[in-house]
Write a structure and sequence with these properties.
Elements lengths: L1 H43 L8 H12 L13 H13 L10 H6 L3 H4 L15 H15 L4 H16 L7 H5 L6 H4 L9 H11 L10 E3 L14 E5 L2 E4 L1
Antiparallel strand pairs: 1-3, 2-3
Helix pairs in contact: 6-7, 6-10, 7-10
Amino acid sequence: MNRIVKAGALALALAAVLAAVTFFTVQTAPRAEQTAWSAQAAEAALRQGSRGDTVRTVQTKLKRWGYYGGSVDGIYGPATERAVRAFQKKNGLAVDGVVGRATFAALGMPASSGSGSGGNSGNNSGYTDADTYLLARCIYGEARGESYTGQVAVGAVVLNRVRSPEFPNTIAGVIYQRHAFTAVSDGQINLTPNETAIAAARDAMNGWDPTGGCLYYYNPVTATSEWIFTRETVITIGKHVFAI
């Protein structure tokens, strides 16, 4: 009898232990998954303390555009954060000093943001949807009052600069190069482009260049730079003179 009681008690004890282990596993597994997901999400953004090649790329871009004066060392320190904040403020982004999805896209680094905006934009040029939209914003900010050909011409100048060794080799790099475009300086780059500007950007990306390879354009009525008037004029389209 005592043996039967002891065996029953032991069975109950084992059942209790098994139930506790099962409960702990069920409760902690989702927490572990959530922690892993949170760590992945945090790792996707860059902030103070981040290190690596992606930080180095961000520093290089910000230095080229005049926002960053420190060393390109791949270390996200206070100077890098200040540069990021300045870039964010200038481009109408949330000023938090963190390179997240929106800031990655503005830097021309959509693949790093994990935003899924790195897909092909429907042309054979290799540019992304983010590139197309940024170019359209530039066209809209710079030339929305011009003819359709004039808008494509502005987009073509941007792309000619991307291909030129004298300028940054990305659309974002060219557009955000310091003092390069009035629309960036006065904030019109942040306006929402219309369908005409988007179509003009696509046509330019697909190879239409009404300027014949020009690297510069200006409005002779409003231009204040003496230097720009020294460039060789190739063609005038609407109010803009296109030059090399």
